[in-house]
Amino acid sequence: MKSWLPILLLLGCCASAGPPEHRSGYHLLGGELRALQDDDFANPGMLWVDRGERLWNAPGGPREQSCRDCHDEPANLRGLTNRLPRFDAEADRLHNLDTLVRDCRQQRQQAEVLPHESEDLLALTTLIAHQSRGLPLEVTVEGPARAAFEQGRASFERRRGQLDLSCADCHQRLEGARLRGETISAGMVNGFPLYRLTWEGLGSRQRMIRWCNEAVRAEPMDPDSRRALALELYLAWRSRGLPLESPAVRR
Ligand code: HEC
Ligand code: HEC
Fold it and tell me: Which of 6, 18, 56, 66 is most exposed by smallest CB count within 10 Å?
């Protein structure tokens, strides 16, 4: 893990810079990486979409049913991912794309549940997210979702870890600052699941949260926990209006 100590110095110098909000991480990519994201034949994330299509059609569970048997075309789920996480009032919890797919697979298809960040889960979630490419992020934060939203906001602003930095310290106050070859973005989530060169692979929003937590040496969060989902809701709200890019490419 790289040392993030220089950031403390940066914070000292420009903490009041203020947020030029709402810029997709796409705008920080060089021309080559933008071209990679834009070209469906070259974009490495499209491999997961292809794999997701094969899984979509694969029978599973005791009745040998595929996703297609019940949902027909993946395109039927256009307009879902850009509205997630969403509050399920009946279950009194937030759902994100991972929990919806894992639950459906377990409860309706009755097949073995897919582990978080497994290649199969990422293939299905990337296939589904890709259907909403171009649609603006719009999550509901009113009504029953309000408490979770406030919890997420507080979590974003709370300092954490051995470095005592909050998400807001980096992604709001230091947006645009250069840190050891990386440019800190506004921390938008409109690209996920996305391909990161650093990971040499694909990851979900929750993987990104875990990565940033590790960077400041904070305790990891269980990706299914209320606080992790609440933080994701807040991130999606901050990204509102941005078009979904999945599978995006990032450094
Ligand atoms: C036995 C039928 C059945 C199978 C098989 C099935 N689903 Fe579902 N799924 C449903 C039903 C019914 C719902 C709830 C109604 C709805 O939202 O369409 C649902 C809901 C969902 C949702 C939430 C949709 C929304 O708009 O809220 C997702 C995502 C999903 N399923 C993904 C999958 C995936 C991926 C597979 C294959 C791994 C799968 N499902 C297999 C029947 C099924
Ligand atoms: C020490 C600074 C730092 C802190 C603190 C930090 N991050 Fe990050 N974060 C980064 C860097 C560096 C990247 C990779 C470059 C980029 O996309 O900003 C990143 C990337 C991201 C991205 C992906 C942006 C994109 O365009 O794909 C999200 C989302 C994110 N962080 C969320 C968070 C959250 C939530 C927290 C708090 C739990 C947090 N970050 C805390 C430095 C930080």
Answer: 18
Please indicate whether residue 106, judged by its CB atom, sits closer than 6 Å to ligand 1. no
Check whether residue 51 and residue 33 sit in a common domain.
no
Which residue among 77, 110, 131 closes a domain? 131
Specify the pLDDT at position 47: 98
Count of domains for the chain: 2
109 Cα nearest atom in ligand 1: 5
**Size of the chain, expressed as the number of residues it contains:** 251
Three-state DSSP at 51 gives: helix
What are the residues whose beta carbons fall under 8 Å from the beta carbon of 156, sequence distance 6 or more? Answer: 166, 167, 168, 231, 234, 235, 238
State the residue range of the domain holding 217: 6-10+23-39+141-250
Asked if residue 9 has pLDDT above 70, the reply is no
Ligand 2 site-directed mutation target among 3, 164, 171, most atoms within 8 Å of CB = 171
Both tokens of residue 36?
């990679």
Q: Does 16 fall in a domain? A: no
Q: Report the share of the chain in percent with pLDDT over 90.
A: 88
Q: pLDDT by residue (tens digit) across 90-134?
A: 999 999 999 999 999 999 999 999 999 999 999 999 999 999 999
Q: Is 170 noted as a catalytic residue in this protein?
A: no
Q: Do the domain assignments include residue 18?
A: no
Q: What DSSP state is assigned to residue 28?
A: G
The ligand 1 atom at the shortest distance from the C-alpha of residue 61 is 5
Domain end, chosen from 100, 131, 162, is at 131
